[in-house]
Amino acid sequence: MSDRLGIPADWAWLRQVHGADVVRVLEAGAQGPGDAAYTSVPGLPIAVSTADCYPLIVESSGAVGIAHAGWRGAATGVVEALLRGMAAAGHVPARAAIGPGIGACCFEVGPDVGERFRGHEATTDWGTTSVDLSAVVRAALGDLEVWASGICTMSNEAYHSHRRDATPQRQVAVAWLPA
Ligand SMILES: [Zn+2]
Fold first, then answer.
1. Where are the alpha helices (DSSP H) in the chain?
2. Ligand 1 centroid vs 107 CA: distance in angstroms?
3. Is 17 within 8 Å of 48 (Cβ atoms)?
4. CA 87 to centroid of ligand 1, rounded, Å
5. How far is the CA of 76 from the centre of ligand 1 (A)?
């Protein structure tokens, strides 16, 4: 995969815990625990893995950030924490990209989860209460220019979905600064 992308083979990975801790990455290898990271090191790929949670990439001058945002992380403020962490280090976020994750069409939730996301409630394709987690992530990005894939990992069988298959397999999102 690194060859195809033309990037170094040694990536930095987080030990993801569905929280909101942000890791500043200085070298490749295992990092964390944390669910967001950024690096200002050129040519150092940073990655998160997801299967229904949303991968998020944030671009700024001199740094790139990445996050893993499921409902727990989103409710805990992982997106805001990444933006704050990057800005505090002098890398004011400029643009963001939201990858594939479970859509409002499929993300059925109980009342305990639904009430954490007032204003982002929706309805599944089968008529039960859901949360539009992509919209939650987008809202947390404020005024940033945002690209979103709009792909639901549970509806689209080309993607791994923990809810659909209880699969241990994951999508990987990777971000890097040009070397
Ligand atoms: Zn769906």
1. 2-5, 71-76, 78-88, 111-114, 133-140, 162-165
2. 7
3. no
4. 34
5. 24
Radius of gyration, CA atoms only, the chain: 16
Domain ranges of the chain: 2-101+142-175
134 C-alpha to ligand 1 centroid (Å): 12
pLDDT at 32: 83
Walking along the chain (179 residues) 10 residues at a time, the average pLDDT comes out as 91 95 97 96 97 97 96 97 98 97 98 94 97 98 97 97 94 95
Q: How far is the CA of 54 from the centre of ligand 1 (A)?
A: 13
Ligand 1 centroid to residue 109 C-alpha, Å: 13
SS3 of residue 62 by DSSP: coil
Those residues whose C-beta lies under 8 Å from the C-beta of residue 12, and which sit 6 or more positions away, are 25, 27, 28, 29, 31, 37, 39, 44, 45, 46, 47
Q: Give the SS3 label for residue 111.
A: helix
Task: Look up residue 139 and give its amino acid.
Answer: A
> Which CATH superfamily is 2-101+142-175 part of?
CNF1/YfiH-like putative cysteine hydrolases (3.60.140.10)
How many A from CA of 1 to the centre of ligand 1? 27
Interval between CA 178 and ligand 1 midpoint (Å): 34
